[in-house]
Amino acid sequence: WGRKQSAVAALATPVRTEEVPAITSKVLPKFLAGLTSVDTPVLLNLGPVIGQNISFFGDRLSCKIFVEDLFQELEAHTAGGTVKEMSTSLPARLKHEPGTVDGILCWDVFDYLDKATGQAVAAKLVSLLRPGGVLHGFFCTQSADVSHFSRFIIDAPDRLRLKPVPAVSGLRRNVTAVRDINKMFTGLNVGESILLKTSTRETLFRKP
């Protein structure tokens, strides 16, 4: 586990996963497969600490996990009326050295970022990945004002559960066209892109 994750894991609240609906993932198994050959891979999680997920990746990959909850940062800027500052503050929060991360879990954070912020964060993530590294993300296909986030809970290598949690008011989920998603992650190849029954696109990127 990474230094930041170990400091906060004890505070993670257990989630009763049987109470939230499940979705089948065809991309997460390929994300895992892309890391199994790496000795002690380094993972960067852009979502909150969820104990079940930390245990899953730790048991499967014997990895180091660093948590940078960009959702928390997003809410703080939204509540404070400083959204325009995110294109600078969010990339600055990702302090790892270039080429030192093997896997990145974006979840659906890009759905809530404006275009400039999304491009800046994506460029930073591309720089952090090692050659052969993989990046996993979800991208919505319908814009909407939202009152909650979805927490992604890993129940099995091919199954995720979405737990709704309240979010600060004023948030909006934005659609990014597939071609623009690919352009954001220039420098990475699309390894898999699948439209789920939930009308969400699950995507795996890989660095050559």
Walk me through the topology.
Elements: H1 3-8, E1 22-24, H2 28-33, E2 42-45, H3 51-61, E3 64-67, H4 70-80, H5 86-93, E4 101-107, H6 115-128, E5 129-140, E6 144-156, E7 159-173, H7 178-184, E8 189-195, E9 200-206
Parallel strand pairs: 2-3, 2-4, 4-5
Antiparallel strand pairs: 1-7, 5-9, 6-7, 8-9
Helix pairs in contact: 5-6
Commentary on this structure:
- The structure is a single chain.
- Residues 1-18 have low confidence and may be disordered.
- The strands form two sheets. Strands 3-2-4-5-9-8 form a six-stranded mixed β-sheet. A three-stranded antiparallel β-sheet has the order 1-7-6.
- Helix 6 (115-128) links the parallel strand 4 and strand 5 (129-140).
- The protein has seven helices and nine strands.
- Helix content is 30%, strand content 35%.
- The chain starts with a helix and ends with a strand.
Judged by helices, strands and strand pairing, the structural class is alpha/beta
Distance between the termini: 26 Å
Q: What is the beta-strand fraction?
A: 25-35%
How would the global form be characterised? Answer: globular
The helix/strand series, from N terminus to C terminus, equals HEHEHEHHEHEEEHEE
How can the largest sheet be summarized?
Answer: 6 strands, mixed
Q: Count of DSSP helices?
A: 7
Radius of gyration: 16 Å
Low-confidence stretches: 1-18
Sheet with the most strands: spatial strand order: 3-2-4-5-9-8
Average pLDDT rating: 90
- According to DSSP, the number of beta strands is 9
Helix content: 25-40%
